[in-house]
Design a protein that fits this description.
- Helix content is 40%, strand content 16%.
- The chain is built from 53 helices and 49 strands.
- Strands 1, 7, 30, 32, 33, 36, 38 and 40 form an eight-stranded mixed β-sheet that branches. A seven-stranded mixed β-sheet has the order 43-42-41-44-47-46-48, sandwiched between helices. A six-stranded mixed β-sheet has the order 20-25-24-22-23-21, with helices on both faces.
- A hairpin with a 2-residue loop joins strand 17 and strand 18 (615-616).
- Helix 40 crosses helix 41.
Length: 1523
């Protein structure tokens, strides 16, 4: 009761004035129309495989009929229900999240875009395209197919949905463009799927919505920041803004506490005084005025205080509180200063921080996120890529869950380091058959070299090969002495040896092994015997030296002949008896087979071959001209690996380097490409079938492939030779027809391997060549019967005996099976079993082979822990050595580690071995990401927020580390909340606080726009979509709005009457709305010239569709060969720009694209919100090898033509010349209404003083919608050209976070790529300048070879001396006698600028300096001044820039431009300064205001003419169309 009285008293004091709530909302629309949920769902399901996609399509054939009868929400639920037939519960949750994110919308729209490129026939709901001919009717397909073969095939993309029919390569391709779920689709689908099943055509489906809904959808997955601006200099426009359409949702944030009142609770318990409560809350909020600056001593502990506050609330509210504190920090800071921090919390945080910094290198204040141990870098990852990660993990997590591995065991299994598949396996080179010419460690030649491995760490000049007396680098050449390639390779080896390259060189000679051949009939054998003779008489190295001199007698292009060998023997060893050495009875023929045997056993490819440290070089690297550079490059590359090993202490002074090399994980006893190939397929053992019956073949045939596999695994019996612990880490299934010799041989080799290797078990699957019957399964039934009735060893011995060819003959002669049994075994049990076995289960096995393993009856295969090898060719052998290699590879993958973990679980032997097989298949099949980290905390009672997962469900293990008051925490807190709504998580959040803060840790409000599911309104229609809402912001600070989007998005403001750069809520009534649009998705890439390895500076690319090839263009940067092109979802073609680029260069190869690497047309499909990054390699055409893209002679008319299209329309050639001469190009940047107002005035002042045509270039990224709307009217009335340019800050260049600094960066960092090559000179003019002279003078000024000219700062105003920072300290010493220049006005000679790569140098220097937050405080000005020694600045005459702050009044008369510099002494606001200093400014201002007023009136009049009377029923229909 008492509470109510207090409340009533308080409420009486509050005046009842309910004003509209103030705030800011920001939203982001896609540029394309709404895509239907059904199509997005089909794309989601399609990611799980083509088979599922088509099953889903069949299920929802005519689903859209429900769209009209149902509410939007129930139709959405119907889609989820249909999808649920193909997805697990976890996947359905991920689907909801994907639909809320509209993650698959770009994929759907990309198809739509490809369709519009066809183009679609008129008024067609769906159509087919058959090799370029279209039809809207399913009846015409037959007719169009007839002549299809004569027309070229259409291009198919990687992500195309191809119907799984009988897809032979020579069939015609029919592409259906239709919307799944519609009647029209069903008609086509029925016809096409039948024909595809009959093998008459290849059927491809692409989404096509005939009448897309005009509504745009709102996107999510981005952040919005309201940063508090410094108001040291007042820079706000005083023009009033009128805004008609503001909608607010005041239901936000009502549950929080203000000055001790818990308003959420009060509203629940006293609903009758709701309005007064809202009023009281606002009153309290305003009276607290949280924005009073804190004292430094109050800030010190804020981070710990925030953590203490978060840890003190119930844990389910803790994340929300963390979000609230970090995202609204500026208004919460004051209340945090009153929180007390417990000593034990401080201590625990410090202990954990010490541990984290030692184990994973995380320091106080860092923010890190780990999902199942995978590190998620939030600078790179966004919700779209996190969804992909969740999805990839789901397969593994659900698999483990189904296999019964839960809780802690799940976490441990996931953390197992699965070795990524090596693509460079090495062969063991410690083999006696290799003859080494030299040995760096022991030969006297190298005696003077140092021997310590530490020498590797000593600094040398780049490119120098260190000479150390260790066998770090070993080259083995496999040669047939008589082949002509051998001659050059031997000469190359000699070159390396003579130049004392630290390379140990060995030879393996592969010569004829037949005994009857002698040295007089085969030069190879003669050569080998000669070698042995010299080695016997002298020593091996002498013999190999002789070999080199022998080869010197052979000309390149010839081969070694018997005559050369005998002549050499006669000349060098006149006393020797040639017959005794080379003849039939030679004593020097020993070990002749060794080389050939080693070569055969090693399984290497065709001769000649080279191994570098055991790794085989590919055949195209064996070209002797290339080989030298390749070997030297390998030496350089391997050096870094060795350096790391020495540094980490893995390689010490005592190690034998060769042994160290040969003990690495990638070293194998033999090379078998089939086993070592990186393209591996695995069976999926994770299903839990309802039945496990394989005797009933009909039943078995209905199971899907996962269930069939699970039944096989359950019923399989094994031959084992078990480890001491009874478990087998490797399970091999041998598949074949055992009535054939090849099948028996395969199984026999496997059993031999089992005998030699404990820990392997072998199961046998029959795949008979014909229909299984009593006759063609005799041996298999005997094998099976022995497995069922005999003891382990006995069964193995019996089957080994049974498989021998003599036993087969005995059986054919009529011997009874039981007579082959080995003495002492139970004959009766075996015979009984053998005679009663049915053949049905073999039929099921054959089905398994056909449907799951994709084998034809009779084909052989081997499956090792679920990895499928085969089918083998009929003649292909799989030897015992191959089984050894397979076991080694399987164990080193993850089997060994999985076995150790399964052992801890304590299960029965067979179950345990099964589990190892299943888990190994699951883990190794999962795509290899980065290493999973094991992040744990020493103590977690006071500093770690823990949320437990729901029991008995799949859970994600999420660890977050964050200081609650950082930019990372702003984003992470939202992300974690959504994550915990989407999936079941076990969450740990560690408060990684920084101590002793000296400034406010966060200076912004922030919202992360993300929802876990599609939201609906009360009337079951879809809500308009996710929006960032900032309600209850303090009204005093000045705010600027920033959109923080994923890397490859280019967004722009499309509607907002307010100045988004200067939001001052005191002066706004209601809500400031900002509408943005995702204007482009970027296609980024790196381009290199193949012959030089350097980026081709100045090369231009164009991007377009087939109907419009030139839509966007760009220039390649020298930094990393980087380029970026604006695009949107669809299939794009990248070409070299017509003109010099295309004349001089050609595209050779490309990767990351969607066309084959050697195709001339580079096609890139953008079908997701992820970044798309491609690599392009180009080369100069042979006849243009000496031409330079940026050379002076590129002045020719051709280039102007090639660029005319950018500047708007191709001009005639001679006009082009004139026009080019005569345009003044002016560049400027502005942000915020005030600066845009200044900008218009600057433009007017430029135009008033010149007769030359002017073209203005503006940076589009930061212009307000109102400026973009009115600039065209201004251009029309004053007769100038303009163009908006934009460039996305590249991801590899150090990012700035403050908007002002980003804009400064754009002024200087991208001059070489912002403008087309045709623009020779550009003048940058600051927005707040007034021009009083003809800028043509400045353009024509001679820069004396400098790339740009700036005006130095004035020295004439004496009273400002104390503020001239460049006169002392760093700048004084850096500049020497040069002047410090001001960046308000500069002229750039772009030709020279590009030629000396000034842009790349500036970016390089920026990258180096900007890592330090205190350097480059005036980025755009400090950078060129800092680089003055590397990139020369021409100092312009002083009158080109006058500003009152630094120049005296006398010089104002001659001033050619006047700049409104800030005055650090008086801090006078810009607007007052402008009117005071420049009399004509007010006139210009009024003139432009009148123009804008006229424009506004015209628009209002036009709008009134267009608005029809509102109609009610129209609206209802629209609501139906949201899906």
């Amino acid at each position: 009761m008492k509470n109510i009285i207090v409340l009533s008293l308080l409420l009486l004091n509050v005046h009842h004035v309910l004003s509209a709530p103030k705030g800011v909302t920001a939203s982001l629309k896609a540029k394309w129309s709404m895509t239907p949920f059904l199509l997005e769902t089909s794309e989601f399901i399609g990611e799980d495989g083509n088979e599922k996609f088509w099953q889903f399509v069949d299920t929802v054939k005519e689903l859209t009929v429900y769209k009209h009868g149902e509410s939007v929400r129930s139709y959405y639920n119907l889609i989820l229900k249909k999808a649920g037939q193909f997805l697990t519960d976890l996947q359905v949750n991920l689907l909801k999240f994907a639909l809320a994110l509209r993650s698959y919308s770009p994929a759907v729209h990309a198809s739509q875009q490809i369709a519009s490129d066809e183009p679609p026939p008129e008024a067609c709901a769906a159509f087919v395209s058959i090799h370029g001919q279209h039809s809207c009717s399913a009846k015409e397909i037959k007719k169009l197919l007839k002549a299809a073969a004569g027309r070229p095939k259409p291009y198919l993309y990687k992500n195309d949905h191809i119907y799984p029919g009988v897809n032979k390569t020579d069939l015609p391709v029919v592409t259906l463009y239709a919307e799944i779920g519609t009647k029209k689709f069903t008609t086509f689908h029925k016809v096409l799927s039948e024909k595809a099943d009959e093998g008459k055509l290849i059927y491809v489906l692409r989404h096509f919505v005939a009448e897309p809904k005009p509504r745009k959808m709102l996107l999510s997955g981005y952040g919005v920041e309201l940063a508090i601006k410094s108001t040291e200099y007042k820079a706000v426009d005083d023009t009033k803004v009128t805004d008609s359409k503001t909608v607010t949702h005041a239901e936000d944030d009502n549950n929080d506490e203000v000055q001790g009142f818990l308003f959420g609770t009060l509203k629940k318990s006293h609903p009758e005084i709701q309005e007064q409560l809202i009023e009281l809350r606002r009153h309290l909020l305003e009276s607290t005025n949280d924005m009073v600056p804190l004292k430094v001593w109050e800030m010190q502990d804020l981070s710990f205080q925030a953590a203490a506050r978060i840890m003190s609330v119930p844990k389910f509210d803790a994340l929300k509180l963390m979000r609230d504190l970090s995202q609204n920090f500026p208004s919460k800071a004051r209340s945090l200063t009153r929180v007390a921090v417990k000593q034990e919390m401080r201590k625990e945080i410090e202990e954990n921080q010490k541990h984290l910094s030692e184990t994973i290198g995380v320091h106080p204040g860092d923010g890190e996120l780990f999902i199942n141990g995978l590190h998620i870098d939030l600078d790179i990852h966004n919700p779209f890529s996190i969804l992909d990660i969740l999805r990839g993990e789901a397969r593994v997590l659900e698999g483990l869950h189904n296999l019964g591995i839960k809780g802690e065991h799940q976490v441990k299994m996931l953390r197992l380091p699965v070795n990524a598949v090596d693509d460079s396996y090495a062969l063991d080179i410690r083999h006696p058959a290799i003859m080494w010419i030299n040995d760096i460690e022991n030969d006297p030649v190298y005696r003077s070299w140092p021997t310590g491995v530490q020498e590797l760490l000593r600094a040398t000049f780049p490119g120098v090969i260190r000479q150390i007396r260790r066998n770090f680098f070993n080259l083995v050449l496999f040669l047939d002495p008589v082949r002509e390639e051998s001659v050059e390779l031997v000469k190359l080896a000699e070159l390396f040896y003579k130049h004392k390259i630290p390379l140990r060189i060995g030879f393996v000679f592969v010569v004829n092994t037949k005994d009857e051949i002698d040295g007089f009939s085969d030069a190879g054998v003669g050569f080998y015997r000669l070698l042995n003779y010299i080695a016997d008489e002298y020593d091996l190295s002498q013999a190999l030296m002789s070999m080199l001199s022998l080869y010197n007698k052979v000309e390149v292009g010839e081969t070694l002949s018997i005559d050369t060998v005998t002549a050499y023997l006669k000349r060098k060893f006149p006393k020797a008896n040639a017959e005794r050495i080379l003849g039939v009875e030679s004593e020097y023929d020993y070990k002749r087979q060794d080389g050939a045997l080693f070569y055969k056993k090693s399984g290497l490819g065709a001769l000649p071959l080279a191994l570098f440290n055991g790794v085989p070089l590919s055949p195209d690297e064996m070209d002797p001209d290339e080989l030298e550079t390749i070997i030297l490059q390998r030496i350089m590359d391997t050096t870094t690996t060795f350096q790391r090993a020495v540094f980490m202490g893995q390689l010490t002074e005592g190690s034998d380097v060769v042994d160290y090399l040969m003990e690495q994980a990638n070293v194998v006893p033999r090379m078998n490409p089939l086993i070592l190939s990186t393209d591996r397929q695995y069976l999926d053992f994770t299903a839990k079938p309802v039945v496990d019956d394989w005797e009933d073949t009909t039943m078995f045939s209905y199971l899907d492939s996962r269930d069939k596999t699970a039944v096989m695994a359950k019923r399989m019996k094994y031959f084992t030779n078990s480890d001491e612990d009874g478990m087998s880490a490797v399970t091999m299934w041998i598949v074949g027809d055992f009535e054939k010799v090849s099948g028996r041989k395969l199984l026999l080799n496997a059993l031999k391997h089992v005998k030699a290797s404990p820990g392997v078990r072998v199961g046998v699957i029959d795949n008979p060549s014909g229909k299984p019957s009593e006759d063609n399964t005799v041996l298999y039934r005997a094998i099976w019967a022995s497995l069922l009735t005999l003891k382990n060893k006995a069964a193995r011995e019996f089957v080994q005996k049974l498989l021998k060819e003599e036993s087969i003959q005995l059986l054919q002669q009529g011997t009874k099976m039981k007579h082959l049994l080995i003495q002492g075994t139970d004959e009766d049990a075996f015979e009984k079993k053998f005679n009663t076995l049915e053949v049905d289960f073999v039929r099921s096995q054959q089905l398994f082979c056909r449907d799951v393993l994709k084998l034809i009856p009779g084909q052989r295969a081997v499956i090792s822990n679920g990895r499928k090898l085969g089918p083998f060719e009929e003649q292909e052998e799989f030897t015992v050595e191959d089984f050894q290699l397979l076991e080694k590879i399987t164990l080193s993958g993850s089997a060994e580690k999985v076995k150790a973990k399964v052992k801890q679980m304590g299960m029965k032997t067979k179950l345990a071995s099964d589990l190892v097989m299943k888990v190994d298949a699951l883990l190794t099949a999962a795509p290899k990401g980065e290493v999973r980290r094991d992040v744990h905390f020493i103590k977690d009672s006071h500093s770690v927020l823990r949320l437990s997962p729901r029991e008995n469900e799949v859970f994600y293990d999420v660890v977050a580390i964050a200081d609650p008051l950082t930019r990372e925490a702003q984003k992470m807190s939202s992300l974690l909340i959504v994550l915990s709504q989407v999936v079941n998580v076990r969450l740990q959040v560690f408060m990684n606080c920084r101590a002793k803060l000296s400034e406010m840790p966060l200076k912004s409000f922030y919202r992360f726009v993300l929802e876990s599911d599609v939201t609906f309104l009360a009337n079951d229609t879809v809500s308009p979509g996710p929006v960032a809402r900032f309600m209850e912001l303090p009204e005093s600070p000045l705010l600027t709005l920033n959109m923080i989007t994923p890397e490859s998005w280019m967004v722009q403001a499309v509607r907002s009457p307010h100045d988004l750069d200067n939001i001052h809520l005191q002066e706004v009534s209601g809500v400031v709305t900002a509408e943005y649009e995702l204007e482009h998705l970027l296609l980024e890439g790196h381009c290199f010239d193949l012959s030089t390895g350097q980026p081709p500076r100045g090369l231009q690319f164009t991007l377009g569709m087939s109907r419009d090839p030139l839509m966007y263009d760009t220039i390649v940067m020298a930094n990393l060969g980087y380029f970026q092109l604006k695009a949107n979802p669809g299939a794009w073609t990248l070409r070299l720009r017509k003109g010099r680029s295309e004349d001089i260069y050609q595209i050779l190869t490309h990767d990351g694209t969607d066309s084959p690497a050697d195709a001339g047309d580079v096609i890139a499909v953008l079908n997701s919100f992820h970044s798309k990054i491609i690599k392009v390699r180009v080369q100069k055409k042979a006849e243009k090898i000496n031409e330079d893209l940026l050379s002076e002679n590129s002045e020719s008319k051709g280039i102007w033509d090639s660029i005319a299209s950018i500047t708007g329309g191709g001009s005639k050639k001679d006009d082009g010349e004139k026009q080019k001469e005569d345009v003044l190009n002016i560049f400027s940047v502005a942000s915020g209404h005030l600066y845009e107002r200044f900008l218009r005035i600057m433009m007017l002042s430029v135009l008033r003083h010149t007769k030359t045509p002017v073209k203005f270039w503006f940076l589009k990224n930061y212009l307000s919608p109102s400026f973009k709307d009115t600039i065209s009217h201004m251009a029309e009335s004053y007769g100038f050209q303009y163009e908006l340019v934009q460039y996305k800050w590249p991801r590899w260049l150090h990012q700035q976070t403050e908007k002002q600094r980003i804009i400064w960066g754009y002024k200087i960092l991208f001059l070489d790529v912002l403008f087309p090559l045709a623009v020779d000179k550009i003048i940058f003019v600051d927005a707040d300048q007034i021009v009083r002279a003809d800028l043509k003078e400045l353009r024509d000024l001679d820069l004396e070879g400098a790339p740009y000219g700036y005006t130095p700062f004035c020295d004439s105003r004496r009273e400002m001396e104390g503020y001239r920072f460049w006169k002392s300290g760093y700048w004084a010493s850096h500049l020497g006698h040069r002047k410090y220049h001001i960046s308000a006005l500069y002229v750039v000679d772009l030709k020279k600028f590009r030629k000396i790569a000034a842009g790349d140098r500036l970016r390089g220097q920026y990258q180096a300096l900007s890592q330090d937050p205190n350097s480059l405080s005036n980025l755009d000005q400090d950078l060129p001044n800092n680089m003055i020694h590397q990139v020369v600045i021409k100092s312009l005459p002083q009158e080109w820039l006058w500003c009152e702050t630094w120049c005296d009044d006398a010089s104002k008369v001659t001033a050619k431009t006047i700049d409104l510099c800030n005055n650090p002494k008086t801090k006078e606001p810009k607007l007052t300064a402008a009117a005071r200093i420049v009399p004509e400014w007010v006139e210009y201002d009024n003139e432009i205001k009148q123009l804008l007023r006229r424009v506004q009136e015209q628009e209002d009049a036009a709008a009134q003419r267009q608005t029809p009377p509102p109609s009610q029923h129209k609206k209802v229909d629209n609501r139906r169309d949201e899906l």
